[in-house]
Design brief:
Layout (H helix, E strand, L loop, with lengths): L1 E5 L8 H11 L3 E5 L12 H14 L2 E10 L6 H18 L3 E5 L8 H22 L2 E5 L7 H11 L4 E6 H6 L4 H8 L3 E6 L20 H10 L5 E4 L16 H15 L1
Parallel strand pairs: 1-2, 1-8, 2-3, 3-4, 4-5, 5-6, 6-7, 7-8
Length: 266
Amino acid sequence: MKLAFSTLGVPGLPLPDVLRLASTHGYHGVELRAHPEEPVHPGLPPAERADTAAAFKASGVELLGLAGYTRVAAPGDDGPVLEEIRALLELARDLGAPYVRVFPGGGTDQSPEEADATAARRLGTAAEDAAALGVRILLETHDSHRTGADVIRVLGPVGHGSVGALWDVMHTWLGGEEPSQTYAALAPHLGYVQVKDIASAEDTSPLALGAGVLPLGEVVEVLSRHGWDGWLCWEYEKRWYEAAPPLPELLDAGRRHLARLLNESA
């Protein structure tokens, strides 16, 4: 498995510094948070897109994916949602990213069936754009669909290879799902896995990997047992928790912890 980290952990950091961190601390790739407050986002002009792609190529660090914020199950018209996904896909195509992340985002005034159908309809439409652009859309286990069982209710009806799943281990744990259950649900669709650690279900402030309660060892063991060789991406939520220790100080220890889990599961 290859290791990456998300720029959610280094909010606003210029891209050259992000790439330097990855190279210095032994990470193979980076997931870019594609938000207007970040250096790289869908409003980026063509010249800056070319510069970004060139910077990744020169650094030897891979661009794992773009973490977008589109909520595919949200109430409302399909048009704006599809436009948002299209913009993310075009940015990913221009930068050479294989994946874009979207959220479920079902509303509290929807039934689960309505949220599922809305998300599946939009993702089914967007899948054609994704296939044409050579990018894969990943629906994250998050908010209204936090478990693998929830996400597969959407992906099953979509039935398209250009739409898959992103496994966020915190949300499946909060949803009461065992890692083996999540893997069984998502395996045919799994793009990559976001790892992190927290103190408890009540305190989700980000911690160093291995310092909290999330079953990271069990997740890695399940993936290894099934021969899965994709990406583990550390999503350290510094942007939402300003008091959390700076991610750069934790990167070395985080890589060593993941490497130890991989060795133990081999």
